[in-house]
């Protein structure tokens, strides 16, 4: 059973990294720099979450950006943050992996592709759909769709989903079309449908969704601020227009305005 064992002031050198536990997304350098300044000024206000696999053996589960910020601080200021506040949790590897995803998924910019590996992993580990849905605060139908469709997602399709060039609903529609295709023509059917979907881009961000998403950011992080370049503003406007945006525009918006694009 997943439990919080205790809160501790732990030597930072004792916190390791487990191959099954990661940040699911590449670390955002601008977020790390912001956290460095904030932690120097205010301290570590939110403890890191670590898994005590065996007595005295700790692995980072949640707080990867904070950990990277602390490492940056320590590289410039030897002796700073030799010990850090941590929440120590225990549980079997499946539960810890699910917690690792859940902590990362609490971010407002999480995309559905961030869930794929872990949901399939937990299903293969004999977690019921109800248990997975309850743990991740998702509907059973949402979990069922991932388990059903993800094994048939090709790498190009996954990359387009991750880049925001393809919606999850459209991906499911393409896979459904492929399953109905004559035997032997599945690959051609999928590639044709994917190419056609790319020709007719969906609108990844509207003014309404942007207002809703930025409201969530303000509610959860009232002191949050953005530092952007002219190119970032241009990318945002092109994306809002919904016509001539590119994957590069989407990535720039995600990097410059965390939480603005829908998950």
CATH class of the largest domain: Alpha Beta
Low-confidence stretches: none
Shape descriptor:
globular
How many H/I helices? 12
Order of strands, widest sheet:
1-5-3-4-2
Main pleated sheet = 5 strands, mixed
Tell me the CATH superfamily of the largest domain: Conserved hypothetical protein from pyrococcus furiosus pfu- 392566-001, ParB domain
Radius of gyration: 21 Å
* CATH topology assignment of the largest domain: Conserved hypothetical protein from pyrococcus furiosus pfu- 392566-001, ParB domain
Structural class: alpha/beta
- What is the helix fraction of residues, given as a range? 40-55%
Which CATH architecture of the largest domain?
Alpha-Beta Complex
Mean pLDDT score, rounded? 86
Number of domains: 3
- N-to-C SSE string, H for helix and E for strand: EEHEEHEHHHHHHHHHH
Number of strands: 5
Q: What distance lies between the first and last C-alpha atoms, to the nearest angstrom?
A: 29 Å
User: Approximately what portion of the residues adopt beta-strand conformation?
Assistant: 5-15%
């Amino acid at each position: 059973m997943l439990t919080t064992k205790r809160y501790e002031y732990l030597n930072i050198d004792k916190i390791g990294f487990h191959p099954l536990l990661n940040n699911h997304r590449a670390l955002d350098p601008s977020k790390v720099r912001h956290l460095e300044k904030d932690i120097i000024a205010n301290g570590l206000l939110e403890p890191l979450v670590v898994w005590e696999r065996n007595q005295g053996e700790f692995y980072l589960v949640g707080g990867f950006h904070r950990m990277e910020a602390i490492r940056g601080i320590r590289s410039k200021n030897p002796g700073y943050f030799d010990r850090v506040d941590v929440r120590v949790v225990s549980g079997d590897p499946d539960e810890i992996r699910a917690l690792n995803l859940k902590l990362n998924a609490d971010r407002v910019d999480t995309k559905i592709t961030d869930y794929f590996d872990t949901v399939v992993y937990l299903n293969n580990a004999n977690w019921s759909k109800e248990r997975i849905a309850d743990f991740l605060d998702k509907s059973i139908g949402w979990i069922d769709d991932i388990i059903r469709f993800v094994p048939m997602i090709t790498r190009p399709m996954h990359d387009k989903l991750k880049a925001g060039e393809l919606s999850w609903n459209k991906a499911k529609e393409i896979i459904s079309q492929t399953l109905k295709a004559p035997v032997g023509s599945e690959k051609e059917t999928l590639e044709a449908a994917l190419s056609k979907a790319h020709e007719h881009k969906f609108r990844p961000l509207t003014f309404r969704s942007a207002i809703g998403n930025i409201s969530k950011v303000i509610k959860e992080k009232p002191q949050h601020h953005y530092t952007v370049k002219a190119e970032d503003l241009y990318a945002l406007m092109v994306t809002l227009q919904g016509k001539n945006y590119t994957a590069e525009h989407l990535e720039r918006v995600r990097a410059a305005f965390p939480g603005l694009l829908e998950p």
